[in-house]
Amino acid sequence: HLLRDEAAKTEQKKGRSSTVPDLKPVTEEGGDVKIKITPQIIHDIFEHYPSVKKAYTENVPHNLKEEEFWKRYFQSKFFHRNRSNADRMKNQQKDDIFDKCFAEDEDELVHGPKKRRLDRLNRLIDLSMTAEDHLESGNEPDITMQPGTGKSLTLLRKFNRHAERVLKSSLSEKPMKPKESPSDYTQKKGYKDEIIIEDLDADEIEPRILLNINDSRRYFESQTGTSMNDIGQNEKFPTSALTNMKALFADWHPDLRKPIRRSVSSQVTQMLNKAIKDRNNLNARQRNSEMKIPPALEQQVMNIHSASKEFLRHFWSTVNSAAPERIEKNKRMVEQIRKTLERIDEVAETAGEDGKVVRLMFKHMEAALKNALVVRQAPINGKRKRAQ
């Protein structure tokens, strides 16, 4: 967090100060009045009063020295207009330079700022675009802001103008190029993204890779899990079994005159049932002894299995997609699959004597994870071929 905060501080640009430049004269012991001015104060004055900057450019240093220019500025009517000493403002001597600045500034405050170009106006917040939707209630400008209707209007316009300049300096709006049409500018402003609802768009058909199967018989055999060899062996088994049975009973002749005692047949049946039961119990004990692991380790194995299935599901759903967001998602899934394989190795190593059992439990899942990495790292003719 500390590194992130430090990086944000270094990348963040300092905006313009929102305070209005106001210089207060300081009276010294001898009665002299002095005003301390710095390059930063000069910059703030130029930013807040463009007419003063214009006068400075036109007169310094050709007609006036810089010291003389600022001395006349602090003695001018323009400087004392917003101060409480109105009597001193009336007694100010005429100054051609700053009286012109005063007149230009007052004209802007009284008559309002110049109209903005309508082709540069943000259509999403332009009230005139919805004028026809308010026929009953109306949508007219506020008459209280008409110029010359009140003394406070000039002061309000002054504060509004200052706030607008502060915001413009922080927004740093990029001007429209001469060859750029209003429609192009509108597209760059992102209006299209604001008015289009993705849920209403038609679903895009993702490009898919056709699977060419050279040997369809082998493919369907792999899907069903039964091969032709297995089928042939299963067909031969009844024939061989019947031949063996015939050879065993070739020399046997039934003699119904010699009945078998009931006790003997019951004893044989019990022996056969006991042998079958013992065989089943032995197999069950062997399976339980081989796969028995501590509960905590078993829970770890189950969690890794669940996470691995989710990673593989997301991987295979995005492996052949051309969409940028799905490609990025597939890369994240590959990284998670690699971490999962490392996690499997770590669990198997820390399991000690149960490591072989853990490996056996992860055998098929580990093969599926490695198969995904092979597909991701083996592009063939610009396409990915699934590993067999």
Automatic annotation (TrEMBL):
One Gene Ontology cellular component: transcription factor TFIIH core complex
InterPro entries, sorted: BSD_dom, BSD_dom_sf, Tfb1/GTF2H1
GO biological process: DNA-templated transcription; nucleotide-excision repair
One Pfam assignment: BSD
Region feature (Disordered): 1-27, 167-188
Compositionally skewed regions (Basic and acidic residues) per UniProt: 1-14, 174-188
Residue ranges constituting the BSD domain according to the UniProt record: 29-81
Name of the protein this chain belongs to: 11319_t:CDS:1
Native source species: Paraglomus occultum
